């Protein structure tokens, strides 16, 4: 059996840079999303934090900037990756898919808004990260 030593013996620094690249993309998405949410709550575009948001236009607005931020997060992750930038972006997208799916499962029964919103958050996580990786390659 032949084992590739390039991946198995990757220096710890490269592993840390890989983790850092994915973490940076994740933090960018979370900070930008929650920051934008907070601005919209402060200027009263969104209802207060403790109230449900059923207006489909407002949910579509939230989904639209989260898509943009997901693409940006994939771009940042791919840009910072020490090698295999697309793999790093897809790892970020997979993490987003898992977290968003868990969020959808947890929040849909709580009746906080239309069910399609958390479902689309989960479904768009991986494609957005992939697109960010593609854009970084260009």
On the 0-100 scale, what is the average pLDDT?
94
Number of helices: 5
Structural class: mainly alpha
N to C succession of SSEs: HHHHH
Number of strands: 0
Terminal Cα span: 37 Å
The percent range for helix content is over 70%
Taking all Cα atoms into account, the compactness measure Rg is 17 Å
Structural features, described:
This protein has 138 residues and is mainly alpha-helical. It has one domain. Helices cover 76% and strands 0% of the residues. The protein contains five helices and no strands. It has helices at residues 5-8, 12-42, 56-80, 85-107, 116-137. Helix 4 (85-107) runs antiparallel to helix 5 (116-137). It is elongated and about 50 Å long.
Quickly list its features.
single chain, 138 residues, mainly alpha
Briefly, what is this?
By secondary structure, the protein is mainly alpha-helical. The chain has helices spanning 5-8, 12-42, 56-80, 85-107, 116-137.
Write the layout of secondary structure elements.
Blueprint: H1 5-8, H2 12-42, H3 56-80, H4 85-107, H5 116-137
Helix pairs in contact: 2-3, 2-4, 3-4, 3-5, 4-5
């Amino acid at each position: 059996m032949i084992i590739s030593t390039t991946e198995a013996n990757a220096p710890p620094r490269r592993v840390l840079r890989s983790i850092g690249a994915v973490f940076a993309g994740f933090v960018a998405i979370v900070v930008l999303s929650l920051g934008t949410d907070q601005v919209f709550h402060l200027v009263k575009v969104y209802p207060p934090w403790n109230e449900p948001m059923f207006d489909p236009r407002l949910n579509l607005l939230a989904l639209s900037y989260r898509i943009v931020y997901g693409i940006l997060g994939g771009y940042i992750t791919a840009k910072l990756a020490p090698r295999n930038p697309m793999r790093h972006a897809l790892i970020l997208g997979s993490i987003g898919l898992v977290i968003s799916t868990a969020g959808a499962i947890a929040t849909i029964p709580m009746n906080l808004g239309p069910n399609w919103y958390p479902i689309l958050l989960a479904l768009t996580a991986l494609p957005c990260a992939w697109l960010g990786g593609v854009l970084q390659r260009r």
